[in-house]
Design brief:
heterodimer, A: Rossmann fold, Helicase, Ruva Protein, domain 3, two-stranded antiparallel ribbon, 9 strands, globular, disordered N terminus, B: alpha+beta, Ribulose 1,5 Bisphosphate Carboxylase/Oxygenase
Chain lengths: ~300, ~130
């Protein structure tokens, strides 16, 4: 483990020179906290992601844990690196992938992973087509992920109980081995929908015991979804006028009742369709358009949605 | 007889930490690292056996070190060479190569002189 060598600052005992009684040595946690700039990372996370309170609290806990672990290491208390493999569960569109992306940089800032890149894979990248194809493929992916975070989206597809000759099992075994033996080299994050991950874990108890942090992503509240949509729109250089904002609130309520509701993803799709309708309206209207007209989405564009039709 | 080939070969053998640091250097430059092994390190023997394919898109030395460990376990009595390939246009060549493993009992070579027509001397390196 090379905590001190990657520019996040080495923890320094503030009292007690070499040869002193180790019980008297002190580590200044606050100084360590400022040195690693964890507050900046966490503030950034708070600002960038709307809602997700339990997730943010969990990340804060992990940050504190790593900080204390670093302090313990300085005083020679721990030998083995902490396990940081995680499982993200939650309904579609609750921000699992987005948080995973940020997790890589958080862990890097905290000095837990050396490089801080994220390798995002699904079953296809790990499991081969024929006998003897899976192991090299999985190892290749693991090698690329070393020093960073390996994010396995929809991890339950790795395990196909209906086919006992499925090569997924081979990939699982290699993964488990690396997760156990090379904890300091990479962090594995499994993500998927709650109920199916539950089935996956009960079929593969090895995974459950090797994953220390199970983080559940709650569904967004209506107000949060509206705020998310506005953030999305602002990032693309659009804005909603007052009528559209009211329509958006109604839209969220109506959309939630319909099948295949996917939280923030549904809102992104709704925004994309509203953009189409806005473009059509501007196109069909005669005369030149100004910047404001190009930016603004009105109530009509939201209300035209199929969601309101029944 | 100590075989000297590639970079660093007149130095004492690199430790694993030093090898990892060299790999980090190569990866930081965007070079693809690969491993090769042979039981015949003759200077004219250019094409050694490859240990897997070159490792592209790596970010960290740990992946290469894992392969090196596996290669050493499989071929303890071979020479293992690590090379770093630069694919940048204009270079497109190996930028760094050095030996990372040698067998306990090294191979020995000697110089052989052959007399040709008209007292011409031909030299070759042969196994001792």
């Amino acid at each position: 483990m090379t905590i001190g060598t990657i520019g996040t600052g080495q923890a320094v005992p503030v009292a007690g020179a070499a040869g002193d009684n180790p019980a008297d040595a002190r580590v200044d946690l606050k100084a360590l906290y400022h040195e690693t700039q964890i507050d900046a990372v966490l503030a950034e996370l708070d600002a960038a992601l709307i809602g997700l309170k339990p997730v943010k609290r969990r990340i804060r806990e992990i940050a504190a844990y790593l900080l204390v672990d670093k302090a313990r290491r300085t005083l020679g208390l721990t030998a083995t690196p902490p396990t940081l493999h995680m499982a993200f569960t939650g309904n579609p569109g609750t921000g699992k992938t987005t948080v995973a992306l940020r997790m890589a940089s958080i862990l890097h800032r905290l000095g837990y992973v050396r490089k801080g890149h994220l390798v995002s894979v699904t079953r296809d990248d790990l499991v081969g087509q024929y006998i003897g194809h899976t192991a090299p493929k999985t190892k290749e992916v693991l090698k690329r992920a070393m020093g960073g975070v390996l994010f396995i989206d929809e991890a339950y597809y790795l395990y196909r109980p209906e086919n006992e000759k499925d090569y997924g099992q081979e990939a699982i075994e290699i993964l488990l081995q690396v997760m156990e033996n090379q904890r300091e080299d990479l962090v594995v994050i499994l993500a998927g929908y709650g109920d199916r991950m539950e089935t996956f874990f009960s079929a593969n108890p090895g995974f459950r015991s090797r994953i220390a942090h199970h983080i559940d992503f709650p569904d967004y509240e209506d107000a949060e979804l509206v705020a998310i949509t506005e953030t999305l729109a602002a990032a693309e250089g659009y804005r909603f006028d007052d009528g559209a904002r009211a329509a958006l609130v109604d839209y969220v309520t109506a959309r939630r009742r319909r099948p295949s509701f996917a939280n923030a993803r549904s809102m992104r799709n709704a925004f994309d369709r509203a953009r189409l309708r806005q473009a059509m309206r501007l196109f069909e209207a005669d005369g030149p358009v100004d910047q404001d007209a190009l930016r603004t989405i009105t109530a009509a564009e939201i209300r035209a949605s199929r969601v309101f039709s029944d | 007889m100590r075989i000297t080939q590639g970079a660093f070969s007149f130095l004492p053998d690199l430790t694993d930490e030093q090898i990892a640091a060299q790999i980090e250097y190569a990866l930081a430059h965007g070079w693809a690292v690969s491993l090769e092994f042979t039981d015949d390190p003759h200077p004219r023997h250019t094409y050694w056996d490859m240990w897997g394919i070159p490792m592209f898109d790596l970010k960290d030395a740990a992946g290469v070190m894992g392969e090196l460990k596996a290669c050493r376990a499989a071929h303890p009595d071979s020479y293992i060479r690590l090379s770093a390939f630069d694919s940048t246009r204009g270079w497109e060549t190996v930028r760094l190569a050095f030996m990372v493993h040698r067998p306990k009992e090294e191979v020995a070579y000697r110089l052989q002189r052959t007399e040709g027509p008209g007292r011409v001397q031909h030299y070759s390196v042969v196994r001792a």
